[in-house]
Design goal:
It is a single chain. By secondary structure, the chain is an alpha/beta fold. Helices cover about 40% and strands about 15% of the residues. It contains 13 helices and nine strands. The strands form two sheets. A seven-stranded parallel β-sheet has the order 5-4-1-6-7-9-8, sandwiched between helices. The chain has a two-stranded antiparallel ribbon with strand order 2-3. Helix 11 links the parallel strand 6 and strand 7. Helix 2 crosses helix 3 and helix 3 crosses helix 5. It is elongated.
Length: about 350
């Protein structure tokens, strides 16, 4: 009798659904944030560069306006302007800010001084020097991506984890994350125009497990959040990432999709609208607009990940990245597969093959 029961239990386990888990993050003010207000850094660099009239308060007056003006005149960081790349775009913004602060700097004699200031600021904000992270952020993401269950489960509820970044930004996100200690795959969604339905990317090393499997940046995609193509691009890259890491992509395995960001309108609500579960991470934000659809994840931490995420997509809040990661590990990666609450054949458990 015991043998029959064991065989029946094994049969049930083998039939229990397992999921792949796709977790994508916003970058700025989700995974990292400036160590100090940006206008203060600009002001300090300017004064160090001999521009003594550049007080922090005066810089703050012009910073936002000049960025907004440049975005209108040279959209997408000047990507389609001959001779302009993100560095040249930001250097132009910086020059215009400080000419506003001190009009005499428009004289050609100050060109080299302003160019030097622009380069220094651009490179400062391209590395870890400019940013703080959530406590232990790199180690938390590494533990999520590369977790090996201490219980040595034969049949975990989540079979494979893919981590990505989906961000409204220029092309520096991967480099910033690398400087913060993460091993970032070169896999990116890159296209030359909004009309392109296919993308190109550098090829990851086959068989390698990266900390971050791919990056989706608005600069590359030619659209920005909250446009749905940003999340569609993430799903396409997730397919490619699995194929490179595991050598194959199994269409039959259902997917749970989770997006984590700091903005309801640009991150959480549109991700939810694309069929993803979404989390508002409050690590770096102090307030947000009320939204009755948001539920506190802290009150649901006893629930298995597959049970909470396999139903209709939901929107959550969580105060700390550490809380989110620990929940996924303990209630997802260390939990045996069990009965599912949803039909795995539904389209929302699959990854898109192309953008619409």
């Amino acid at each position: 009798m015991r043998g029959i029961l064991q065989a029946a239990r094994a049969a049930n386990i083998s039939r229990a659904p397992k999921y792949n888990l796709l977790v994508c993050f916003d970058a700025f003010e989700t995974l990292y944030a400036p160590k100090e207000p940006v206008h203060k850094t600009y002001g300090q660099f300017a004064r160090d560069n001999g521009l003594q009239h550049a007080s922090d308060d005066v810089v703050a007056v012009y910073l936002h306006d000049r960025i907004t003006t440049a975005a209108k005149e040279y959209p997408n960081y000047g990507k389609h302007v001959k001779g302009m790349d993100p560095e040249a775009w930001w250097m132009k913004v910086i020059k215009n800010i400080f000419v506003d602060v001190e009009p005499s700097l428009s004289n050609a004699a100050h060109k080299e001084q302003l160019d030097d200031l622009g380069r220094r600021l651009f490179h400062h904000f391209s590395t870890r020097d400019a940013y703080k992270t959530a406590p232990n952020m790199p180690k938390l993401l590494q533990s999520l991506k590369h977790h090996k269950s201490n219980s040595k489960l034969d049949n975990p509820s989540i079979d494979h984890v893919v981590l990505g970044v989906i961000s409204n930004s220029d092309d520096r996100v991967g480099g910033i994350l690398s400087s913060l200690g993460l091993d970032v795959s070169p896999l990116r969604f890159q296209r030359e125009s909004k009309q392109d339905t296919h993308f190109e990317s550098a090829r990851p090393v086959d068989g390698k497990s990266y900390d971050i499997d791919f990056t989706v940046m608005s600069y590359d995609v030619e659209e920005s959040k909250p446009h749905k193509v940003m999340w569609q691009a993430g799903e396409m890259l997730a397919r490619r990432a699995v194929a490179h890491e595991l050598g194959k992509f199994d269409e039959s395995v259902p997917w749970l999709k989770l997006y984590v960001g700091d903005d309801i309108k640009k991150d959480v609500a549109p991700a939810w609208g694309c069929g993803w579960n979404a989390v508002l991470l409050k690590e770096f934000i102090t307030e947000h607009p009320p939204d009755e659809r948001l539920k506190s994840l802290e009150g649901l931490l006893t629930m298995p990940v597959t049970q909470l995420l396999a139903g209709e997509p939901r929107m959550f809040t969580v105060n700390k990245l550490e809380t989110l990661v620990e929940w996924i590990v303990k209630k997802g990666l260390e939990v045996p597969a069990g009965s599912a609450d949803a039909d795995n054949s539904e389209e929302r458990f699959k990854l898109v093959k192309e953008i619409e």
